[in-house]
Amino acid sequence: MNVHEYQAKELLAAQGIPVPVGYAALSVDEAVAAAGKLPGPLYVVKAQIHAGGRGKGKFKELPEGAKGGVRLARSVDEVRANAEEMFGQTLVTIQTGAEGKQVNRLYVTDGVDIAKEYYLALLVDRGSGRIAMVASTEGGMDIEQVAHDTPDKITTILIDPAQGFMPHHGRALAYALELEGDLNKQGQALARKLYDAFIALDCSMLEINPLVATEDGKLLVLDAKMSFDSNAMFRHKDLEALRDETEEDPMEVEASRHDLAYVKLDGNIGCMVNGAGLAMATMDIIKLNGAEPANFLDVGGGANKEKVTAAFKIILSDPSVKGILVNIFGGIMRCDIIADGIVAAAREVDLKVPLVVRLEGTNVEEGKAILAQSGLPIVAANDLGDAARKIVAQVREAA
């Protein structure tokens, strides 16, 4: 689960981490009111979307030369003008894709006199099984280019979760950022607080870009991007309340309500599979046969009829889907339950695209009988290879 920058900063501030004063706004008037609470005379107006690269982003509806999604304003009137221009517009960044994201929230913060920008992130390094603290002296909007051109300017510090954060980790971070004097002490203290926040909030990623040293010698978190382990949300009902579903794909939101693992893709063959590994293999074999999967959808090992019906309806709600491949290996899940769900969903949504079903495992004969007796145009497959060939052929024939 992701949150907006202003929400991430509020969470960090609650952990004693220094952030600039700022206020979220859902309208132009709220943005102006937010500026009125700040000392000025310099303000920063930031578009709030779940994507990085906002500063260099472009608004679809505005002229090519228009400013990006992070803007400086030197008066309250400029704050209003920027807010009027940004609200409701579609911001395209390097991370949104060409479709972009609509700006429905702004964040107005106090301006900061910056002496130096740094990059700092914490994330789970699955290769080592440790938490990685990634740092660079070259923070700012071009950090991706730094990583590509000069990877030696990026330092990774691994922290064993069994041991936890130790003083030498803080010293290593301060050294990597080339901090001296009081800034060195601040850097060590900040590293520990960020690590503690990362653990306490069950984060999967915490990125600060930039972390800045101000002209008066303070370290300050100027921007923050935070995501959480969805499997840990049962411990954090307060964090669940921060979820902004308007930033997510509607089909993925609906899938999450039914505890389905769903990711929309760019192809035209919908997939419903039980088990992540089998789902990946199903997508691979579709591609092997010259087509593209429209989604990853894992209904899990213990799905019931209602869950299968919901999964089927989610796939069909995607207008790009021109055919569906159901690939189920019944272990804990019974094939007859899958078949009941498929038939119920197909009847409810008035199925108009080819459907190929491959069932194997527990109660497979009962499941096949249910499909055969349904009266629906369902094509049975003997194995996964046969299923992939049949659905690809039927989609091409229908086109």
TrEMBL record:
Q: Which class of enzymes does this protein belong to?
A: ligase
What's the name of the protein? Succinate--CoA ligase [ADP-forming] subunit beta
Q: Which residues bind substrate?
A: N274, G331, I332, M333
Pathway it works in: Carbohydrate metabolism; tricarboxylic acid cycle; succinate from succinyl-CoA (ligase route): step 1/1
The record's keywords, sorted A to Z, are: ATP-binding, Ligase, Magnesium, Metal-binding, Nucleotide-binding, Tricarboxylic acid cycle
| UniProt key word Metal-binding | yes
Gene encoding it?
sucC
Q: Which InterPro entries match?
A: ATP-grasp, ATP-grasp_succ-CoA_synth-type, ATP_grasp_subdomain_1, Succ-CoA_synthase_bsu_CS, SUCC_ACL_C, Succ_CoA_ligase-like_bsu, Succinyl-CoA_synth-like
NCBIfam families annotated for this entry? PRK00696.1 (NF001913), sucCoAbeta (TIGR01016)
What positions does the entry give for ATP binding? Answer: K46, G53, R54, G55, V112, E117
Q: What does this protein do?
A: Succinyl-CoA synthetase functions in the citric acid cycle (TCA), coupling the hydrolysis of succinyl-CoA to the synthesis of either ATP or GTP and thus represents the only step of substrate-level phosphorylation in the TCA. The beta subunit provides nucleotide specificity of the enzyme and binds the substrate succinate, while the binding sites for coenzyme A and phosphate are found in the alpha subunit.
What does the subunit comment say? Heterotetramer of two alpha and two beta subunits.
- The ATP-grasp domain is annotated at 9-255
SUPFAM superfamilies to which the protein is assigned, alphabetical: Glutathione synthetase ATP-binding domain-like (SSF56059), Succinyl-CoA synthetase domains (SSF52210)
- EC identifiers of the protein: 6.2.1.5
The beginning of the lineage is:
Bacteria, Pseudomonadati, Pseudomonadota, Alphaproteobacteria, Sphingomonadales
The molecular function terms in GO held by this entry are: succinate-CoA ligase (ADP-forming) activity
